[in-house]
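Journal club prep — side note

Before the paper discussion, L.F. wants everyone to see what a predicted structure for a comparable chain looks like in token form. Sequence:
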Amino acid sequence: MAQLTSPEADRHWLLEAIGLSRQCPPSATAFSVGAVLVGPDGTVLGYGYSRELDPADHAEEVALARAASAGADPGLLAGSTLYSSLEPCAARASRPVPCADLIVSSGIRRVVIAWREPPIFVPGGGAVRMRRAGVAVAVVPELAAAAKAINAHLLADLAVPAARQHDGRGPRWCPDWPVIRSGTHTSVTSLTGWPVTVATVR
């Protein structure tokens, strides 16, 4: 096995995470994500996928819980890398603590992802939050297509999602986003660069 932080190792473990995401129970209201936590010596400390044990489960929190139940100490976690097929969330409706905060609190100092979270259900931004807390975040864009394919049913309508405000499930519209109006829809480009078409706001 290549060195843990080598491009070859990052690709290997991220593909493992993407493979785990294929095991997720299907959902029309949540992404399918896989995560693998790998120790400094290349040992798998934890793994998980969305909705694995509970409908509210996120992949990263399941992986962290497995590592904790196995007795992984903070010193070991500090030298570990968490691989996630999607950017860890910075906000969530299902539980009070988003995955980005769980990762920061765990002491993990490096995260590798395949793609950034589009603001379909909640705003993205997990990578920014982790970086501000001192966690190194790497993106492997050549694996983004494989990770997105598992969520194709959610991305098909990305150009025209109904952005819902105040219900905890839709991206919040910001008045500073560029606005393009056409007919009964209002298209905005969010700060993350993803197009969001506001059909209704509730």
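L.F.'s comment for the group: The chain is about 30% helix and 20% strand. Keep this in mind when we get to the figures.
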